[in-house]
Write a structure and sequence with these properties.
This protein is an alpha/beta fold. It has 9 helices and 12 strands. It has helices at residues 50-59, 77-80, 83-87, 101-104, 168-173, 179-191, 204-207, 209-215, 229-248; strands at 14-17, 20-22, 31-34, 39-42, 67-72, 93-97, 112-114, 119-122, 125-131, 140-148, 151-157, 198-199. It is globular and about 50 Å long. The mean pLDDT is 95.
């Protein structure tokens, strides 16, 4: 849920590492990859905060008209709501996991419905999608390369890490089986052994995005490069699911 004062959502936009940028807000992460042949934008966020994201894109020296691909990790409004606003200024192709179509079809129509194992390529960047349901039926996790000069790093994003949709009150309100908790857990195990050097946050709390941005100018080593962080984060998600299940017993 957004802050009452939209201005409080602001986070300083920044180039995180190489050709990867953060241009989002506190409650909705938005990332851009500059592929050299156009931009890939991941999750444009809420419609209400699109003006902040748009301004942030300009602030990091990029042109929103150069966005060629819009990747939607899952069908919740905090990730997809601004898609149509963005499409007013770019002819980008939109991508969404096929099992989340029902969640967005009342307000947008994705161009490509993704399936497990799909790969897209633009310029110097290839992005592989892994179907990781649980947070939503069609959640997609993303794995792609980041180019930083002559170095290349392997990046990963768990496309739906939120456990808010697994608590008893949410499941009962939306008539969802508790089996989704096991689905969520199985999805984590499916991607846990991926070789990831840079954890990209689906929300800023996943990888302390804002804190790391503040550290960029003073650290000798880029804080976003941490090969151990991926598994630690996924282990924390498993622990949270187990805690939710235990509390319901």
């Amino acid at each position: 849920m957004l802050y009452e004062n939209i201005k409080d959502e602001f986070i300083t936009p920044s180039r995180l590492i190489g050709n990867l940028y953060f241009v989002g807000i506190h409650h909705a992460s938005t990332h851009i990859i500059d592929t050299g042949e156009g931009l890939i934008l991941i999750d444009p966020g809420y419609e209400e905060t699109f003006h902040i994201v748009l301004n942030n894109i300009w602030k990091v020296g990029l042109n929103p008209e150069d966005i060629k691909y819009i990747v939607l990790t899952h069908g919740h409004l905090d990730h997809t709501g601004a898609t149509n606003k963005l499409l007013e200024i770019t002819d980008a192709t939109t991508f969404l996991g096929k099992y989340d179509l029902e969640k967005v079809q009342s307000y947008m129509t994705p161009d490509v419905l993704l399936e497990d194992g799909d790969v897209i390529t633009l310029g110097n960047t290839s992005m592989r999608f892994v179907h990781t349901p649980g947070h939503t039926p069609g959640t997609m996790s993303l794995f792609f390369n980041i180019t930083d000069g002559e170095k290349t790093y392997k990046a990963g994003m768990f496309g739906g890490a939120g456990h808010n949709t697994l608590v008893k009150a949410y499941l009962e309100k939306h008539n969802i089986s508790r089996d989704v908790r096991n689905t969520f857990r199985e999805s984590i195990l499916k991607i846990k052994d991926e070789d990831v050097e840079v954890l990209v946050g689906n929300h800023v709390g996943n990888n302390n995005t804002e804190g790391k941005i503040a550290m960029l100018s003073s650290c000798e080593k880029n804080p976003f490069i941490d090969p151990a962080e991926w598994k630690k984060f996924l282990d924390s998600r498993i622990a949270k699911v187990d805690e939710i299940i235990k509390n319901d017993e």
